[in-house]
Design goal:
This protein is α/β, with parallel strands linked by helices. Helix content is 55%, strand content 7%. It has a six-stranded mixed beta sheet with strand order 3-2-1-4-5-6, sandwiched between helices. Strand 2 and strand 3 form a beta hairpin.
């Protein structure tokens, strides 16, 4: 256990938590005193020994389950509680589905799950060895789940249910079986995420970032921020807001003063042989109306936090801003944000929406938006979608994106993923991008603030 605690401390340090040698020794003595039988008591002993600042609790809570297990339920044997006749029916139905995600079905019904060697091979093929930050760990987990067949599992389970019903198995027995399979699916996804997260954390601990080495946090990927770096960037947001507000105010001042419009002036003076007898000015720029549709899934949450902070610190620079958040479905978050301190409001909103792996449903969320919130978009509204365009192999509903483009003034997409990853796995970005007026990269705060400045300028 001492070796695992030492490894955990290295992971904390790589994430920006300061832990001394003396505190590491204290942690080892504390955990020896409380033992490992009670997981909650063991976790509290480690936290009390290793964490000094409240801002470091987030890093501790993220890393603890990676190094010491999540405490979740293991996979179960889905057949053991069935009577022998029903067990035979299930085996026959599974045999009829042979060759179609057979290995995944065996894992979900047998309760054993993949072996360590199988996990290692899938992780290697998914690119684990090239991962350098937690955001990439999430992407690799999604690729592994896709390779295992999670994206097509619902259809296969529906067919399994039909076969069992046709064979005479009772609905109660089928429901019990499907309940265990569903629990196993969640447990397996959590195990994969934890294993990849641990692998990436170990790799990161071997090459920790020196926060005092002059690294430019403005150009650090938001998904790669440790707690100390994230807090430093939150302070930077306040400086950026002041700068963006000054730039927006200057644009408004110039518009009110009446900047000369060269093209309109030349056209108006053609009858004078080009001599500028009549001066034409540019029309006054109106403050933009915004409808922000924000992906707050696990991989997108760091980007969403900073985007919402920027937009709501700059509310006075827009005519109207309504915001919506989605993971598995859409909901409006404007009421929770209006008239409040942006930092407190963003934290409350993001905490209230549960994260999840392999749960994002952009197509279904857009359908909800059309039914419940379409009044947020009119001919003066710029629709902003913040997301990676990943849809877990569900219907992307490009028809609804096209409809938003026609209904609004402009459609702007902000995406933190590099174009090289578009179209890979469950990404539908190659289908969405041609429907947009512009797609801005927002991998770091420098790119995000530049995109917000262009939006305020109407660009």
């Amino acid at each position: 256990m001492d070796d695992r605690i030492t490894e955990f401390v290295r992971g904390l340090r790589a994430a920006g938590v300061r832990v001394s040698v003396a505190e590491t020794s204290d942690a080892m003595r504390a955990t020896e005193a409380v033992g490992v039988g009670n997981r909650e008591r063991f976790q509290r002993a480690l936290r009390a020994s290793l964490v000094k600042a409240a801002g470091d609790f987030t890093a501790f809570d993220k890393l603890f389950p990676l190094y010491f297990g999540s405490g979740g339920k293991p996979l179960q044997n889905a057949l053991e509680d069935l009577d022998p006749d029903d067990q035979d029916l299930v085996r026959a139905a599974l045999a009829a589905l042979s060759g179609r995600l057979q290995q995944l079905l065996d894992w979900l019904t047998g309760g054993d799950g993949p072996t360590k060697e199988e996990l290692e091979e899938m992780a290697r093929r998914a690119g684990r060895d090239r991962a350098t930050n937690p955001g990439q760990a999430l992407w690799i987990t999604r690729r592994m789940l896709h390779e295992m067949g999670f994206g097509h599992l619902e259809d296969l389970l529906a067919e399994l249910r039909e076969r069992l019903a046709a064979a005479g198995m009772s609905q109660k027995a089928i429901g019990d079986l499907m309940g265990v399979i569903e629990a196993n699916r969640e447990a397996l996804a959590e195990q994969l995420a934890a294993q990849i997260g641990l692998d990436v954390a170990r790799q990161r601990a071997e090459r920790p970032r020196d926060l005092d080495a002059g690294g430019d946090l403005m150009h650090t990927p938001l998904e790669d921020l440790g707690p100390l770096e994230a807090e430093a960037l939150r302070r930077e947001v306040r400086r950026l807001v002041a700068l963006l507000r000054s730039r927006a105010a200057l644009r408004q001042k110039r518009a009110k003063a009446g900047r000369v419009d060269p093209r309109r002036t030349l056209r108006a003076n053609l009858r004078y042989g080009g001599v500028p007898m009549e001066i034409r000015h540019r029309r006054r720029r109106l403050k933009p109306r915004l409808a922000l549709i924000c992906d707050v899934s696990t991989s997108m949450r760091p980007v969403a936090e900073f985007m919402l902070r920027l937009i709501y610190e700059l509310q006075d620079q827009v005519a109207r801003a309504r915001s919506f958040a989605f993971n598995d479905d859409m909901q409006e978050i404007s009421p929770a944000m209006d008239g409040r301190n942006a930092a407190d409001a963003v934290a409350e909103v993001l905490y209230a929406i549960p994260p999840g792996y392999y749960a994002t449903d952009l197509g279904g969320s857009l359908e909800t938006f059309y039914h419940a919130y379409l009044d947020a978009v009119d001919s003066r509204t710029t629709v902003i979608v913040l997301g990676d365009g990943r849809n877990n192999h569900r219907d992307p509903r490009t028809d609804l994106v096209r409809g938003l483009r026609r209904r609004g003034k402009r459609l702007v997409w902000l995406n933190p993923e590099p174009p090289a990853q578009w179209g890979s796995g469950d990404s539908d970005m190659l289908s969405y991008a041609p429907l947009c007026d512009v797609v801005y990269p927002v991998r770091d705060l420098a790119q995000l603030s530049a995109a917000v400045d262009r939006l305020l300028a109407g660009g």
